[in-house]
What does this fold into?
Amino acid sequence: MSDIWAVVPAAGSGSRMAQSQSKQYLPLYGRSLLDWSVAALLIYRELRSCVVALPEADLSCEQPGFLKDARVRLCAGGASRAESVAAGVAALPAGDEDWVLVHDAARPCLAREELEALIKAVTDSGVGGLLATPVTDTLKRAGKNDRVSATLDRETIWSAQTPQMFRVGELRTALRQAQATGVTVTDEASAMEAAGFPVQLVRGAASNLKVTYGPDMQLAAFWLKELYPQLTDPAGRQT
Ligand code: C5P
It folds into this structure.
């Protein structure tokens, strides 16, 4: 029986948020986005442990909330998301046949149902995969001077989310190859695809948004309240 582990890359600076604080530490209902994102994974009882990759300078700070959970370990992240994930995976005492869930620190609204659907689809089929949603907008490819160069067939296009779940050994290989060949990977699935591994799409929900720009915080507050109705004060102090 393969164990299931998790890695949360949380070493980004969140420059698109126009905030002095790194995005993963922004507070909502008294907890950081990172804390909520880790909590959403810890809900899964069988999860062996979760490695959180932080900016090196933050490792010596006292960690609040779920980051103190016995199943959480910390490691230093890298210069890119892929490097942070590779550092997290390297820190796992996991076997090659085990599974690892990689989840963004900036996706605090992951629901138990979607997490369990991903784990079930992947473990039933033995094929790694990711949560994703079919796009609803018509998509344009931008050419020079923002002139439209093409309209894409939206029937075949999905928007990738996290968690993404792969065999530990295959993910290690894929990340190593991406680094060696200089392929830029913005998620683990891209590295797996480039290495020739099959990847399945598992239908997720729009509520599992990635907080990227300022107004996303209000949306995240809305979805957190849907998930945890007992919450009262979005601006609540960090606990
Ligand atoms: O920048 P973006 O929103 O795509 O980042 C996605 C995730 O990757 C975030 O959780 C961020 O903290 C993480 N990241 C990281 N190390 C980096 C850059 C991003 O762990 N060097």
User: Anything to note?
Assistant: The pocket of cytidine-5'-monophosphate is lined by residues 9-12, 24, 53, 77-81, 84, 104-106, 210, 212 (CB under 6 Å). Helices lie at 33-42, 81-90, 112-125, 168-181, 188-194, 216-227. The first helix runs from residue 33 to 42. The mean pLDDT is 94.
